[in-house]
Amino acid sequence: MAASGVNPALPASVLVLGGGYSGRRFADTLRRQGCSVSLTTRREPQEAERPGNDGCRWLRFDPEAGVVPTAADLAGIEAVLVTIPPDAQGGDPVLQHLGTTLQALAPRWVGYLSTTGVYGDSGGDWVDEDSPTRPGLPRSRARLACEQAWRQLDLPLQIFRLPAIYGPGRSPLEQLRNGTARLIHKPGQVFSRVHVDDIAGALLHCLALPAERRPETLILADTCPCPSSEMLGFAAHLLDCKLPPLQPYARIEAELSPMARSFWSENRRASSRRLRQEVGYRLRFPTYREGLSALTARRT
Ligand SMILES: NC(=O)c1ccc[n+]([C@@H]2O[C@H](COP(=O)([O-])OP(=O)(O)OC[C@H]3O[C@@H](n4cnc5c(N)ncnc54)[C@H](OP(=O)(O)O)[C@@H]3O)[C@@H](O)[C@H]2O)c1
By three-state DSSP, how is residue 167 classified? Predict the structure, then answer.
């Protein structure tokens, strides 16, 4: 880090559109590198300012309520991360309400968090950045359309496709502790996942790379897609608690919410080979085993 406190490879001022789970974690990582960070929320900014994110500036972005940051609010921003998903109509709220402002800002990097759902169901096979996109779910079709709309703009864009995100406060450990864990078995079904600190770490790694070394599309995932029952079993082992009874998926499918059923309807393994081998990012949590072990060791 430079004497001024800001890593010279990083922008001095970053905007995170969507200060939710991943956005906040990325903001914390940037702050530790000496960057100044602005985050958006639909709530009143004072409500959003919980512990952590010390020194971040909160802006209100609530397009439905007609509240949008102005060009003056965003003056001096050098890089932007978008974590906001498509809206209920499938449109991109950022493009619709801030697209022109962002283009005028001419940031040196725009990261967009998308989903590996754009690949659709691969029947459990591996997918990577070169695999064809065949989204099966309406929300994944909307997502792919948003990706394509972002690519139309003249911005230094990187699209990050994410599988299920886990980390502090969002893991089977909480489900076991609060009694909501379900041990569901569907033959052959696996899920891919990524620890939120590896999202933040990989984003930071890419941001510090020379522009020509940043892939346009990058999957952020760990190396161990596996059944959810396997991860739950390890979580129970770490907590030294009993597992809930095994439920065959076929028997409980009808009682699941449409959202839960949609998650179980697709089966794929997301490869992070490009991230690790071409981009040179070293995963902090290569599998759920390191991730859950660290979560039981420290509650942050
Ligand atoms: N969670 C997963 O397992 C998963 C898996 C794959 C991909 N993804 C995608 O990865 C991204 C980050 O996920 P996350 O779990 O970190 O997200 P998150 O915690 O839900 O945070 C999303 C952020 O976007 C803001 N937002 C949502 N809709 C908005 C709208 N219509 N207008 C303005 N702001 C809006 C939220 O604002 P408020 O603070 O006001 O709520 C929040 O700050 C999302 O695009 C998500 O769809 C997530």
Answer: strand
Question: Cβ(84) to ligand 1 under 6 A?
Answer: yes
Helix, strand, or coil here: 198?
helix
Cβ of 45 closer than 6 Å to ligand 1, yes or no, is no
Residues 142-190 have pLDDT tens digits of 999 999 999 999 999 999 999 999 999 999 999 999 999 999 999 999 9
Query: Does 282 contact ligand 1 (Cβ within 6 A)?
Result: no
Rg (CA), the chain: 19
Looking only at the bridges linking them, the beta strands covering 193-195 and 164-166 are parallel
State pLDDT tens for residues 249-285: 999 999 999 999 999 999 999 999 999 999 999 999 9
C-alpha 234, offset from chain centre: 23
- State in Å, rounded, how far the first CA of the chain is from the last one: 25
DSSP state letter for 250: H
Residue 219 · residue 270 · CB < 8 Å: yes
Structure tokens at 180: 């909501």
213 within 8 A of 280, measured Cβ to Cβ: no
Domains and CATH numbers, the chain: 13-167+195-221+269-284 (3.40.50.720)
Contact 141, 189 (CB under 8 A): no
The rounded distance, in Å, linking the Cα atoms of 103 and 149 is: 13
The answer to whether the CB of 41 falls within 8 A of the CB of 56 is: no
Give nearest CA residue, ligand 1 atom 27. Answer: 84
Best probe residue, ligand 1, of 162, 197, 262 (max atoms within 8 Å of C-beta): 162
Q: Is 83 in the pocket of ligand 1 (CB under 6 A)?
A: yes
